[in-house]
Amino acid sequence: MPVSVNPSLRPGTVYRTRSLRKYGENPTRLAARLVNEGRLEKLRSGLYYAPRKSRFGAVPPSDQELLRAFFGGAPYLVTGPSVWNTLALGSTAVANVQLVYNAVRTGELELAGRRFDLRRVRFPRRDVGAEYFVIDLFENAELAGVELSVLGDNLSRALANQRFDPSLLEEAARRYGSKRTLETVRQAMAVRQSPVD
Q: What is the C-alpha to C-alpha distance for residues 42 and 4, in angstroms, rounded to an integer?
């Protein structure tokens, strides 16, 4: 295998040590050399970042890029307060940690100064719509700082205004919610209030 003395690294990309194998037989040694040259920054054991510069200085890696490299291609889904708040169901939680659903591990993870709460749970792998995140919010009402009854009332109004698809909502509740969440969603669907302006 030919060894590239100067591997082509894309600024803003996070690399795993094993992804450097294509540049040489000893990727660990190559990573150490590239760190010494300032072409890579070590994030943690086995993860490196090719720095990207802007006119304001160094740009940190995006959350998406960090998680893509960390999970090495395994599926994951980012959720939490920043997603729940956009549903306009009464959640205004602010947190400096994101929930990351995955099929690999559970626990807290810190990468590039950011905290991620990893949870090994079932989650949709594709076509994730707002209805799934509604159920996710109901399942995490306490973390979101809102009572389940308030969420149910607000969901009734949202359904009356046709903001969510009732059949997709019930399907998501059956597949990913607890019995309590499913019951609350069904009650909200039954009580649909008149549309409000």
A: 20
